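User: Quick sanity check before I run a bigger batch. Here is a single chain. Can you write out its predicted 3D structure?
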Amino acid sequence: MTEITKKYTFHVGGMHCKSCEVVTESEIKDLSEVTNVKSNLSNHTVTVEGNFGDKSKEEIADKLNAVLAKHKYTVSTEGLAQDKKWHEFKIAIPVAIIFAVVFVLLQKAGLVNIISTGDVTYGTAFVIGVVASLSSCMAVVGGLVLSMSATFAQEGDKVRPQLMFHGGRLAAFFVLGGVIGAIGSAFALNTTATIILGIIIGVVMLILGINLLNVFHWAKRLQPAMPRFLSKHAMGVTKFNHTITPMLVGIVTFFLPCGFTQSMQIYTLSTGNFMTGALTMFFFALGTLPVLALLSFSSFSIHNSSKSGVFFKSAGLIVIMFALLNIVNSLVIAGLIAPVFNF
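Assistant: Done. Predicted structure follows.
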C-alpha cells in the first residue's frame, strides 16, 4: 500500500529568535511520521510534511505539542492574537530608569567601567552574559538544559551531567573565544575597522533590545543568525545518548544563533588577541552561569512567570540603552559627533 504524505501548516506560540526555528525543526523531524519540516519565525508557523494516517489536523497538533512542550512552544491549528501588552511599560520604564541612574552613579564613582572608549571590559561581558541568560534568546539554551536534565534524571544521574555541561560550556567559550581573537589578529584591524565593528555590535544589540520588548515583530527578521546548517549540526549533538553528551551540548551552545553571543563574538574578533578574546567570551559565559545552573537543578523559568512580560520589556530597554551608548561612543571616537555622555 502506497504511503500518502500530506503537508500541514501550524501556528507556533513562543517563537522569539532564529534559534527557535532550529529547535522546532530538530524536535519535529525526529517523529517517525515526518518526512520534512520547515519553521518560519517571521509568521510564527511550522510546515510539516509526512504520513499521519487518518489523524485529524488537531490530533497532529497535539502530537507536535507533546515534543515541543519541554521547550515552552505551543502548536495550534489557528493563529493566536498577538497581545503586545503596552501597559507593562508602566513598570518597565521606571525599572529601566532606575537601572540607568544606578549605572551612572557607579560609573561616576569608578566602581564599574561598563562603557568606555569603545572597549568592552570583562565586566561588560559578564553583565551582558547575565542579561542574555534571562532573555528570550537564551531560553533555547535553557530548553536544552532542561531537556538534558530530564533525560539523565530518568537514569538516576542528576549532578554529573550538569557539571559536564557547564564545564564544557565555559571551556568552549574560553578556547573558541581565543581562536576568534587570534583570527582577528591576522586581519590587523585599523581604527576605522574597529569603529565600524563597534557600531555593528551596537546595532545588533539594538535589534536584540527591540525584540525583547515584544511589540515590534518585524525586528525579528533583522536579527542575525548563525548559518542554519551549522546550527542544525550543533542541535544534532544533543540527540546523542552517550556519557560525554552533556559536555558536547555545552560546547555546541557556542554555535547556537543567539544574538547576544554573536555580538560578543563580533567584538572578540576585533580584539586581535587570543587571551583577550578567550577571557571576554569566558566572562560572558560566566555571566550566564547562575541562571543556567538554576535551570539545571530546578524548574525555574522566568518565561513561566506572570511578570515575564514586564521583565523582558525592562531588559529590552536596558539593552537598548547599552546599544545606544556603544553606538554614540563609537561615533565620538570617529570624530563624527561631540562627546554626549560625561561619565
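The radius of gyration is 21 Å.

User: Great, the batch can go ahead then.
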